[in-house]
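Protocol step 4 of 5: obtain the predicted structure for the target chain.
Materials: sequence only (see below). No template structures provided, no constraints applied. The aim of this step is simply to have a reference model before the mutagenesis design in step 5. Sequence pasted as it appears in the construct record:
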Amino acid sequence: MQDALVQYPIGSPFIELQSVDSTNNYARKLINESGLPESQAASLHGTAVFAHEQVSGKGSRGKKWLSEKGSNIALSIVVQPGALQLTQQFFLSAASALAVYDLFQKHADDNVKIKWPNDLYWQDRKAGGILIESVITSSGKWDWAIIGIGININQVKFAEDLLNPVSLKQITGKEHDPVALANELCSILQAYLFELDQKNFDQILALYNQHLYKKDEMVKLRKGNQVFEAKVCEVNNTGRLVVNHGVEESFDINEVEWVLK
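Step 4 output (structure tokens):
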């Protein structure tokens, strides 16, 4: 299925739901219930699931993604990785983050960044996030990826326990159409998947690092019970965050957390 990344357009079909527990869960059910042979199952690739309301949205590290009904983008996209290997999962994550970056930066301004591994930040405030769930066979084959995307669009009131959230409306002062933006995002992601299909991994990584949040700045990180300061250097081609705190060191996603005010 090497051609799946480019053979089927992203966002076709575009399934619009009024309410769902989680768009990622809905997408996973589509995969599980397809019952199609592999040659036909590839046609699921590119299916986009948009919900006006998620009652159990998923965030990173097992957290919930809270979103006001009818105000934001809650979108999951089914992708068949094609020629990508499990060891190259980060590049799909980076391509997805770049697509979200491009969309938001186009409608906001130049203060948009990608916070490692795949959060969307405007200045020092979180505007969105990505959660990719993989479907892997018992033999270790990477069959599917579900790219879950949440972006704050028109919401202006957030739960008090959320750390510095921001929406596109708060930045621009304007209402936006979440469905139209979600369709636009699908087209942008299509272009980045083409780059992956062409194995332009170095280009994807360079763009990701170009837009990396706090690059070449000092930040606080937590590893276990230890909090330390380090300079953000880059993200390497395995998706590890490279920092310098007297010595250069790299960390996997589950090894460190940002310490933000």
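Step 4 remarks: The radius of gyration is 18 Å. Residues 218-258 form one domain.
Proceed to step 5.
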